[in-house]
Amino acid sequence: MPTRNPDDSSRVGRAEAATMLGISLSHLDKLYGERATNGFPERVDGTTWLAESIASYQLPRVRARRAASAAVDRSGDPDELVNSTTVARMLGYQSADSLQGQNRIWPLLLERVDDESLTPTGRKRRRWKRRTVWDIADSRTGQGAPHTGRPRATPQGHPDRSGDPDELVGAPEAARVLGYNSPNALPDDVLRQADEDNVGPRGRHRRRWRRATLWAILDQAEQRR
Fold it and tell me: Rounded to a whole number, what is the distance in angstroms from the first to the last CA of the chain?
């Protein structure tokens, strides 16, 4: 628990500050070392920070995501169907090619295709409603959700290692087991480790994981800390 100084201002140490921000101690130390450029709060007595200063601090990646959200093109009819080229432009990319590869927004788009058909050459033609693109952009950046001081894709709950290790579970349960606040928060490396990945006729992925696989992912995360 935070300690109180004589003037009753709540102060926190390294471990408490890192927990409040949802980052590791090494990340906290790096931010503090670069405080001249990232605006990280100064310590008040050489060892602790005012809890209010830590609570109000925005991580650089959070600021970047919010800036990206502000740059989203929100013009047009919300129900208009648009192709990947227009989706890319709406999200601030130069071309549709930028959406694919390692871009973490592409799996979210594939799961929420609003219209899919085949071209005369047999290629898939996917389209999305503008409102769908806006929803995905907001879920990616956390806009509209209560600010908790943690980045969206950081586990916020308590990992769960109970149950049958061979049971297959869907994305909502996988997110809960890993401590994420929603299925949309699952990162790419978790999606790639799904034990089953079935794609429906409209391009939507239905992924399932064995509980043992999710526990192994938890072990991997702990080893990286």
Answer: 23
Q: Where are the alpha helices (DSSP H) in the chain?
A: 14-21, 25-33, 35-38, 51-56, 60-70, 84-90, 105-111, 130-141, 171-178, 188-192, 211-224
Mean pLDDT of 102-130: 87
pLDDT-above-90 percentage for the chain: 26
Pairing of strands 81-82, 124-129: antiparallel
- Evaluate if residue 31 carries a pLDDT over 90: yes
DSSP 113-135: -SEEEE-TTS-EEEEEEHHHHHH
pTM to 2 decimal places = 0.40
Q: What's the residue count for the chain?
A: 225
Among the listed residues 162, 165, 159, the one whose alpha carbon sits nearest the alpha carbon of residue 221: 159
Which residues are CB-neighbours of 8 under 8 A, at least 6 positions away? none
pLDDT band at 154 (very low <50, low <70, confident <90, very high): very low
Q: pLDDT tens digits, residue range 55-73?
A: 899 888 777 666 665 568 8
3-state secondary structure of 3: strand
CB atoms under 10 Å from CB of 47, counted, come to 9
Amino acid at site 55: A
- How far apart CA 16 and CA 113 sit, in angstroms, is 42
Dihedral sign of CA atoms 43, 44, 47, 49 in order: negative
